[in-house]
């Protein structure tokens, strides 16, 4: 039974290069199919045999038998991917198992949350993309970068891809969906004054967002949690600001100059009011104890108390 197979058994199946070649061949064949077709036609036994270097058909039969049920599904006309097959073959094709290539330091404007410096430096730090402050030497923000992401991009294009990937993934997290695995995200709101944060950091509340399935964790100021939701994205879009195309290190100025603020307005159960300002317009986002949106309202500055 596939469901009883251990992860170690599952990976042991790929210890033979021929099997990895078979998965690649199926992916390449599917990508060559008519792109207007919805879904993928399975690849037949003979088509796979033509595409891989395996001595004879009985060897291919053996390897397909081993892959079937875990990485491939045997259907009427041949073989297609299981979910695991799809995931692993994309990982292999993108060569995301390699180390990201080194990149030159990129100068970028934004704001250091610690000291207010606006000229920042971005670069790779192990597998992490890091923006650092040259004045106080604090890390301003960091996010996972994939080797495939850094391989074909540099400079401004790499920064742009980073901003969009972090922003869209963080907006998914705000809807309770894990960008890594699709599992459920549970969010906890913490009071920054009870945490060991430097006092110069202008954050009153922040969230810990954790996936129960794959254990991926995200974290950010509660104001950012509110900013990456549809009403806030629309509010800023209406004012000419593309939140999903803005890097966290660029958003830090909103916190430091007080345009974004959060306060707790009820306890037991907790409720929070986040105010996001643009000139004289204000969007209020109300969040419950788990940082889920309960309601929003747009107010003009003159109505704003
Ligand atoms: Zn600094
Ligand atoms: Zn997950």
Helix and strand topology:
Blueprint: H1 7-12, H2 17-32, H3 45-51, H4 57-67, E1 72-75, E2 78-81, H5 83-93, E3 106-109, E4 119-125, E5 128-132, E6 139-144, H6 147-151, H7 155-174, E7 185-191, E8 205-211, E9 217-221, H8 222-227, H9 230-238, H10 248-256, E10 260-266, E11 271-278, E12 281-288, E13 293-300
Antiparallel strand pairs: 1-2, 3-4, 4-5, 5-6, 7-8, 8-9, 10-11, 11-12, 12-13
Helix pairs in contact: 2-5
How many structural domains? 2
Q: Give the biggest sheet.
A: 4 strands, antiparallel
Rg value: 24 Å
Q: Quick check: average pLDDT? A: 91
- Portion of residues in helices? 25-40%
**Strand order, biggest sheet?**
3-4-5-6
CA(first)-CA(last) distance = 64 Å
- Please give the number of β-strands: 13
In what range is the share of β-strand residues? 25-35%
The arrangement of helices and strands along the chain is HHHHEEHEEEEHHEEEHHHEEEE
Q: pLDDT under 50 segments (min length 5)? A: none
- Shape descriptor reads elongated
Total DSSP helices = 10
Ligand kinds: zinc ion
The structural class is alpha+beta
Describe this structure in words.
By secondary structure, the chain is of the alpha+beta class. The chain folds into two domains: 2-93, Winged helix-like DNA-binding domain superfamily/Winged helix DNA-binding domain (Arc Repressor Mutant, subunit A); 106-303, no CATH class. Helix content is 33%, strand content 26%. The protein is built from ten helices and 13 strands. It has helices at 7-12, 17-32, 45-51, 57-67, 83-93, 147-151, 155-174, 222-227, 230-238, 248-256; strands at 72-75, 78-81, 106-109, 119-125, 128-132, 139-144, 185-191, 205-211, 217-221, 260-266, 271-278, 281-288, 293-300. The strands form four sheets. Strands 3-4-5-6 form a four-stranded antiparallel beta sheet, with helices on one face. β11 and β12 (281-288) form a beta hairpin. It is elongated, with a radius of gyration of 24 Å. The chain starts with 6 loop residues before the first helix and ends in a 5-residue tail after the last strand. The model has no long low-confidence stretch (mean pLDDT 91). One zinc ion binds at residues 112, 114-115, 117, 133, 135-136, 138. One zinc ion is lined by residues 178, 180-181, 183, 211, 213-214, 216.
């Amino acid at each position: 039974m596939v469901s009883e197979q251990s992860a170690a058994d599952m990976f042991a199946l790929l210890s033979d290069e021929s099997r990895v070649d078979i998965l690649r061949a199926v992916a390449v064949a599917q990508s060559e199919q008519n792109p207007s077709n919805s879904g993928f036609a399975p690849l037949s036994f003979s088509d796979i045999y033509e595409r891989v270097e395996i001595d004879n058909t009985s060897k291919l039969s053996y390897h397909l038998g081993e892959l079937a049920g875990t990485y491939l599904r045997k259907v009427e006309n041949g073989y297609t991917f299981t979910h695991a097959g799809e995931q692993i073959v994309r990982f292999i094709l993108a060569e995301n198992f390699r180390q990201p290539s080194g990149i030159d330091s990129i100068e970028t404007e934004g704001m250091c949350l610690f000291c207010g410096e606006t000229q920042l430096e971005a670069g790779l730090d192990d597998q992490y993309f890091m923006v650092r402050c040259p004045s106080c030497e604090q890390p301003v923000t960091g996010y996972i970068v994939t080797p495939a992401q850094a391989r074909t991009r540099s400079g401004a294009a790499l920064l742009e891809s980073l901003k969009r990937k972090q922003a869209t993934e963080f907006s998914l997290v705000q809807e309770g969906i894990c960008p890594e695995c699709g599992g459920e995200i549970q969010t906890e709101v913490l009071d920054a004054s009870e945490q060991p944060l430097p006092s110069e950091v202008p954050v009153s509340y922040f969230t810990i967002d954790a996936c129960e399935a794959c254990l991926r964790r995200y974290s950010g100021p509660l104001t950012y949690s509110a900013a990456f939701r549809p009403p806030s994205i629309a509010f800023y879009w209406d004012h000419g600001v593309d939140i999903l195309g803005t890097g966290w290190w660029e958003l830090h100025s909103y916190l430091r100059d007080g345009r974004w603020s959060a306060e707790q307005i009820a306890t037991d159960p907790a409720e929070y009011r986040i105010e996001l300002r643009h000139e004289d317009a204000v969007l209020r986002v109300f969040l419950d104890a788990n940082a889920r949106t309960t309601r929003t309202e747009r107010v003009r500055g003159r109505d704003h108390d």
